[in-house]
Amino acid sequence: MTHADVRFAIYGEANAACDNVVLVCHALSGSATVHDWWPDLLNMLDPTRNCILCTNVIGSCYGTTGPLSINPATGEPYNSTFPRVSIRDMVRAEALAADQLGIRRFKGVIGGSIGGMQALQWAVDFPERVEACVAIGACPLGAMGIGLNHLQRQIIALDPLWNGGQYSPEAPPIDGLAIARALAVCTYKSSELFDERHGRKPNRTGPAPWESRGGRFDIEGYLDHQGEIFLRRFDANSYIAMTYAMDAFDPARDFGGKHSAWSRVKARVLLVGISSDWLFPAADIRRMGDAMKAAGVNVTYSEIESQHGHDSFLAEPHQLLPVTSAFLKI
Amino acid sequence: MTHADVRFAIYGEANAACDNVVLVCHALSGSATVHDWWPDLLNMLDPTRNCILCTNVIGSCYGTTGPLSINPATGEPYNSTFPRVSIRDMVRAEALAADQLGIRRFKGVIGGSIGGMQALQWAVDFPERVEACVAIGACPLGAMGIGLNHLQRQIIALDPLWNGGQYSPEAPPIDGLAIARALAVCTYKSSELFDERHGRKPNRTGPAPWESRGGRFDIEGYLDHQGEIFLRRFDANSYIAMTYAMDAFDPARDFGGKHSAWSRVKARVLLVGISSDWLFPAADIRRMGDAMKAAGVNVTYSEIESQHGHDSFLAEPHQLLPVTSAFLKI
Description:
The structure is a homodimer. Helices cover 43% and strands 12% of the residues of chain A. By secondary structure, the first copy, chain A, is of the alpha/beta class. The first copy, chain A, has two domains: 8-141 and 250-328, Rossmann fold; 145-241, Rna Polymerase Sigma Factor, Chain: A. In chain A, helix 3 (87-101) crosses helix 4 and helix 6 packs across helix 8. At the A-B interface, helix 5, helix 6, helix 7, helix 8 and helix 9 of A face helix 5, helix 6, helix 7, helix 8 and helix 9 of B.
């Protein structure tokens, strides 16, 4: 592939010195339109004073080139023949887009989850272009996370409509995608939250599981619903592409060791861990912070106390945004 | 169903007073032959002095009536038309088998996971027949556990060979079963253990994930292997039956409240929690112990410190067996 389209959104205007631009990086299922999925952050960043840029990442399905795009060589969608992309590729595409927009340097690069991986990759790959980096619930994925992503990909490929990834646009493998998403939702939340919200209660509608064979617990109804609303808005090959990128993120491997990777960073870095996050455990993020510090990075670690699990980066704006705005001096 | 076969194994002999009989209850994938899956416990129970009984539970696929059994009304296997069974049904079938063997009362009833649920159900449903009850890593399942069991059943039903549960014995839905098992294996282990064993290492055989599209991380190879060895030895409808029974276990619901359920118990009870168990969190087991104590049960709580997660009941004999043998006075 020699060409890629990048869909982006800009909120507010760059000033003459172009030193008020903040880049927001989206996570697995996000898009360029920050106001749709992280309105609290957008307000905090204040488009009347700052210019906020967000691009849809390469491999996704919201306007930037990805598996649903037409392969000019065949006239058909790439589908599963789309090249495997990494977080580095996403960031490189974003950097090229920023070049075309005339943005050389960011006052801040901020993201949660895969978005946080991008923020870190920006700081490592383009040290001169990032003044401050905020990565929330993000670090190289541990074995449990990789394993559960692997199973999600296998679930999608089990769908009778999968067809080796070359499914028809009219009949995508939606059942597999829905189950994979429901499994991902489990990794984004916490046991504590599920127990508080759903516990062993019967589903809100329909029979209880102890009343009839078709009965469900509330958590079953919730997960089914989460799967169902997702399959209407996401593409299975993009989902697979994004999880592979997530698994592969590992600056230490890119640069032959932690120290050589992190010592490239010139940005001030804020790492945010989440107490109940079991996909990106707070302890792993703290450890990454220690390694960055050892490599001379100006790094701050902050922890959100929450039952919301990995999703806290979106679910706990009252905890996250004050820390972030103070750090970014916004 | 008016008739059920129960496959059982007996180790050692009952004495004249028949007061040396211990019942071992197996978990999801176990069988009557304790020496195959819990040899350390069997040694500890000492068949030269005690009589150890284990039955394969109803709904399983190791000899006791279950989905693979022939429905006399049709001459075909029940498959998914097999009646939904509960932990109570399993225990009732076991009690009828014990009656036929002339065993009235057990010196101990012991099990881990679904086996621990059976031990507890025995103490509640047949209080006169249980002297001591040992339940390891067992309590009513929380919302996360129910949700992940639900997804496992959905994965099996996604398999193109599923056929509404009426699959042919020659072509069972093995791919779905393998993925479901791999997901279950994640719930039986811990993040800490996976990180220590597998981390971000490439798979032992074949290319690394960053070398080629078919490459895998070590954890991916491990989970694939766990799925593969399981599909050769288990039936998908039995798997579904067992997980439904696991989800439904809830003595408080059976008897209209915790207090009325637990106050039935006359046995001394040992509950064992496991520090890294995220399927049956130690805190949930401790809380259940408090409710039992409040209902007047003679209950002891003990905790295994281990990285092995839920599987510690099998993986940590050096921690578990001394506590158990002291409690059972064996």
